[in-house]
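WARN retry 2 of 3 for item q-0093 after timeout on previous attempt; input resubmitted unchanged.
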Amino acid sequence: MDSRQLSDDPGQQALYTLIQRSIDRAGGWLGFDRFMALALYAPGLGYYANQLRKFGTTPQSGSDFVTAPELSKWFGRTLANQVAEALKETHTDTVWEFGAGSGALALQLLEALGDKVKCYTIVDVSGSLRARQQTTLAAYIDKVQWVDALPDQISGVVVGNEVLDAMPVQLLHRKNGTWYERGLVWEMQALRWNDRVTDARPPIEIEGDHDYLTEIHLQAHAFIQTLADRLLASKESTGKGGAVFLIDYGFPEHEYFHPQRHMGTLMCHQLHRADPDPLSDVGAKDITAHVDF
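OK item q-0093 returned
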């Protein structure tokens, strides 16, 4: 199987060490979803938790990718029309944003919504991105607050742009008719792919008997369920619920698990280039998978 050697960068070395120890603690094998969580979110070391620049329009800026709010203010202004309607219908004045990135979308929404929003709460685990958001949103600091986790009840309008695609996924690999879960082992000072037989399956049967690699999105499904539960709890307790707008790229289930999509959708982004190898430059590039809507 393919492998990648350690980087000379101290931060990446520390992340590799953390992953190695996690593999050891797990008995020598770590599922890809747990690896992806460390690679992206390990405190201070993972891609979204370290100091590397992520968002920008060109590789010359040292950025890795650009999202719609950075390209045009009209993205946020268009979304604001729908958010305003949802705030009115739910009789609320609070917006929650997950994974606010550079803060560009929050700024566009706050500018467009004006007094319709009394409180704008950002849920973001990245300390470095939070600092950038605070600078971007300095004019609205009286309305904006940051939290690390959701309370037991929430009301208002929830937004998230390209959040679901960055949630850890499990990898399933059908080979010679047998299903395996793909994970990692640590051998000869390198990360290596390793497949283990599993009872897990994609949500629908994959036609044919050809080899097939795909992702399943258990964490994203759990996140959606949590949002629904917290909104419902607020509705039952206070009479105020809310609405959720999650914007991402993906497919409906029958297209996501189409027999011809035999290599899955897992992809990495670094310096505005895409590559399919999450085991190289761990912590220095984004890892993403399309959303199973």
